[in-house]
Automatic annotation (TrEMBL):
Protein name from the UniProt record: Alkylation response protein AidB-like acyl-CoA dehydrogenase
Record flagged with keyword Amino-acid biosynthesis: no
Entry superkingdom: Bacteria
Keyword Oxidoreductase: yes
Domain Acyl-CoA dehydrogenase/oxidase N-terminal: 45-124
Keywords, comma-separated and alphabetical: Oxidoreductase
Region (Disordered): 1-39
Pfam families to which the protein is assigned, alphabetical: Acyl-CoA_dh_2 (PF08028), Acyl-CoA_dh_N (PF02771)
Domain Acyl-CoA dehydrogenase C-terminal: start-end pairs: 275-408
Segments crossing the lipid bilayer: none
GO MF entries: acyl-CoA dehydrogenase activity; flavin adenine dinucleotide binding
Amino acid sequence: MQKLMKQSDALYGTNRPARKGLQTAPQAPSGDEGPGRSSLAAGRILDAIRDLAPTVLARAAEIETERRMPSDLVERLRLIGVFRMFAPRSRGGLELDLPWGMEVISALARLDGSVGWTAMIGSASAIMSPRLPRQTYDLMYQDKSEVLIASVSTPGGTAERTADGWRVSGRWPFATCCQNADWMMGLCFMSEGGKPLFGLAGDASTPLVRCVVLPASAWQIEDTWRASGLRGTGSHHITLQNVLAPEANFFDFPAGAACEPGPLYQAWRHLQSVLLGAVCVGIAEGALSDVVQLAHSGRQQLRAPAPMRDSEMVQGELGRIEADVRAARAAMQVQAQSHWRHALAYTLNGQALYTQGIQTGTWIATICANAAHACFTLAGGAAVYESSPLQRRLRDLQAAAQHAMVQPRHYAEAGRLLLEQVI
């Protein structure tokens, strides 16, 4: 564990003093004005992650085998503030600046991809939930600020209007950490009298889609998460069958108005790909650290003229991989800072910034997946065993890069916007 943290610190530096006996923290996001509220709160979480690191690393095989996050580990993440770092301060949350929250996500992903992914989904759901009507939002946070929400942003259900609200049925995939969630949410196509309703602007080509949010006890979980990577996220299907949901448990997606005023809550859709990039960067950094540790172990591969550590070929490949991973981290930080500046100015809107975020997230996911594959290849036969973290890092990154928000097809929109610019 200490080697993993030491390697990442050597790569990414610091501007915050370490606690005695601990390695230093990741580099502060550029533009942070001294020891501000967000940097101090994030620093406490990062210190807690260092204390938690031996436990996470020791339980990696358990997390993967059980295909879910252990409940006690989820509670540890709650206690250190991971699931409230984007929640409003008015609800007892930390409301961290976006760049600092992404540092926390990548730090957890560096330890284990499934833990980082769960932290990303669990914390970022607090950015989307303020679109609920005030009375339901108040109910959600009435007992605690560490609310864990399993959210699915794929339309998987239908909601039929009734005299008392909406009758909802459906089946939603990829519900990360649903077994530990307090609330769940999923998108629905809205209908009335058996006929689909259409967009708020009356566009007959755009079906009306809204998000239904209900306590976890209202949902059923189907055990379907048998995946190639990110196995420990427990991203099963969730279902509702003929459940009556009040109007107050719906919000418009993605353009619904937020009931909280903070800058984070105004443009959820612009943040999805950028947040996902933080997970990818963390996993790639972990893979690079793993192969460096392997080289330091004295391993000499079959028919190789020298141990890995002394091999010029290995040294050259490590240098190339490190350059890619550092470039991915730099892109993540630049995009996070740009989005955060726009959020503070309440200008994080429009297709151009949305496309820019997806473009960056897609590039980061691709670069990081390639880096993990290069680390796996460099390790040779040692990486194929289940005991090697490199095979898990590779599978986790391949799974993350399959997400709909970071698919290469999104580059086309960036190219179209570029060609429309006046030269």
